[in-house]
């Protein structure tokens, strides 16, 4: 089970909208890797070059507000982000992330850029190992956990229908 996630923190504030996650001019592709090359380019220009697989996005309130495009969570997946921890999410971003297999955790966690963050999806705990702080969150219901483990709604559905890749 893919219950434990973690990596370095990339910290953002409140109201990070989908245009800040992936600027509109790059919405001509659905390729996660292509999108990742431009993730946060106007907000944190160094992100795309320095992010590593497993890193964690930590943010404040209303992360993913703005348009309903699924390109934003795709860009984060393409960049290698293991999950997003935020005080709250825009509803459509939250649902798009789950549908694509990107764990989104509603919890308030103090973090600075580069802190080591660990998330246990099964136990419902997120911990800043650098600062020695932790927060609890409601773990996912079994079906949502299964979607995340399968990589999202489309891979899950293909598997259920017996489709080839």
Task: Name the shape in a single word.
Answer: globular
pLDDT averaged residue by residue: 94
- Total helical elements: 7
- Uncertain ranges: none
Give the biggest sheet: 7 strands, mixed
Spatial ordering of strands, largest sheet = 4-3-2-1-5-6-7
Computed structural class: alpha/beta
Please tell me the total number of domains. Answer: 1
Please name the fourth-level CATH homologous superfamily. Aconitase, domain 4
- Strand fraction equals 15-25%
CA gyration radius, whole angstroms: 15 Å
CATH class: Alpha Beta
- CATH architectural name: Alpha-Beta Barrel
Give the end-to-end Cα distance, rounded to a whole number of Å: 22 Å
H/E topology pattern? EHHHEHEHEEEEHH
Estimate percent helicity: 25-40%
- Counted beta strands: 7
CATH topology: Aconitase, domain 4
Tell me about this structure.
- The chain is α/β, with parallel strands linked by helices.
- It has one domain (4-161): Aconitase, domain 4 (Alpha-Beta Barrel).
- Helix content is 30%, strand content 19%.
- It has helices at 18-21, 32-36, 47-50, 71-79, 91-100, 142-150, 153-161, and strands at 4-11, 56-59, 83-86, 104-106, 116-120, 125-128, 133-136.
- It has a seven-stranded mixed sheet with strand order 4-3-2-1-5-6-7.
- A hairpin with a 4-residue loop joins strand 6 and strand 7.
- The protein is globular and about 45 Å long.
- The two termini are 22 Å apart.
- The model has no long low-confidence stretch (mean pLDDT 94).
């Amino acid at each position: 089970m893919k219950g434990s996630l973690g990596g370095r923190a990339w910290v953002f504030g409140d109201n990070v909208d989908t245009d800040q996650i992936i600027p509109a001019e790059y919405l001509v592709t659905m390729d996660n890797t292509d999108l990742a090359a431009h993730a946060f380019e106007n907000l944190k220009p160094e992100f795309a070059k320095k992010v590593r697989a497993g890193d964690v996005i930590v943010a404040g309130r209303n992360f993913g507000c703005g348009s309903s495009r699924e390109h934003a969570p795709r860009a984060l997946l393409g960049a290698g982000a293991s999950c997003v921890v935020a005080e709250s999410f825009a509803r459509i971003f939250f649902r798009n992330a789950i549908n694509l297999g990107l764990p989104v955790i509603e919890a308030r966690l103090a973090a600075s850029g580069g802190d080591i963050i660990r998330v246990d999806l099964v136990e419902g705990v997120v911990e800043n190992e650098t600062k020695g702080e932790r927060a609890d969150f409601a773990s996912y219901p079994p079906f949502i956990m299964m979607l995340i483990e399968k990589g999202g709604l489309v891979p899950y559905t293909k598997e259920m229908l017996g489709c080839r890749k």
